[in-house]
Amino acid sequence: MQALVTDLGFDVLFKGTNFTRLLGGMWVTLKISLISVALSIVLGILLGVVMTFKNPVTKAICRVYLEIVRIMPQLVLLFIVYYGSARLIGLKFEPEFAAVIVFTFWGTAEMGDLVRGALQSIPKHQYESAYSLGLNRSQTYFSIVIPQTIRRLLPLSINLVTRMIKTTPLIVMIEVVEATKVARQIIDANRVASPNAAFGLFFVIFVLYFAVCWPISLLASHLEKKWSN
Amino acid sequence: MNWDVIVSYLPLYKDGLLITLYTGWFGILISIVLGLVTALIVHFKVPVLKTIAKIYIEILRNTPLLIQLFFIYYGIPKLFGIVTDELTCGIVGLGLLGGAYMAETFRSGIEAVDTIQMESALSLGMTRRQAMFHIILPQAVTYSVPAFVANLIFLLKETSVFSCISILELMFTAKDRIAVSSTTVESLFLVVVFYLIVLLPVSIIGSVVERRLRYASFGN
To answer: In terms of CB atoms within 10 Å, which end of chain B has fewer, N or C?
Structure first.
């Protein structure tokens, strides 16, 4: 058993503070995802409402914004904000800050599109029936429209959280020390003592990400099923 | 912005573009085949294989491509002693990830076709196989198109992650230029232009096809 643990490179996990360091690296990613998600939800709801306006100017701007987010890889956006900002506007951002800007920029577009879809999916007769039953405008919104919108929106926005968490490890490319970076430091430090550390460490990181994302996905699909009828 | 620099970088980015297209193309090809097989296994509830297919879908859909690639590229060779080159790792990684996404797309496409379609086909004297190929699958494809196009764009964008395992694609080229020279603006400008060359046509053709199919199925 002991030999197997060493052969698979899991032994390094129990040396010193290695495992805590790995979790610390993981937390950096999660923290950036969660901050970005929180900002994206607030800004995305605003954007979604703006997107339902009939104004051709706002429509065109939103379209261009959405298309940029749709086709530019997040890594390119990260590079532009992190490396480009210093050149273009003479500001050097902290990498974590650049990451939050990029993921919020991306998440807001995604969230905005979801909110627009949810708002437009409420059929007109829902409003008309509410009015004909004598509800006023605010009663209609708060008791009829918003609850239905949230039911459509919530599972999709929970999925956005997992997508955010799955994209954030890219911050290693702009020199943030997160889980994979910590893993490589540990691998380098134990090159002789445990040559197979790469297997054990990357396996553990893989499992950690799954352990974070899977329950969130399950919650989303549970809510989707529960509210679809 | 220095245009001489841009012109001198063009051949480098062209090579990067070719590698992005090459890895993206093969990765997506594997995704489609794997996704179709997995979707059919899940749909027809093939014993044992169905469970494997579901586990595969859940694992690949709930972990980042970056971590999958690191595991395939750095981890697996340690265990089995097989050494694979970066390109193979990248294509296999993208194919496995894409397969899980495509499987979900195709499965929900098949499920979106009303059961009455199958019943009507059978009552008209078709065999189950005829009904599947002539009635169900054509409609399922129509329903799958929007998510399929979204997957294509997603997978092509994900090829940028290959730069982390030293595949010399577009993103790596840009990263390399930024690191070795002071031409950050030009390098970033070119990477944006080249990604537009790859993804804009897919996005435009995708939305034209979507619109045509919507017209074909619902007539509005």
So the answer is: C
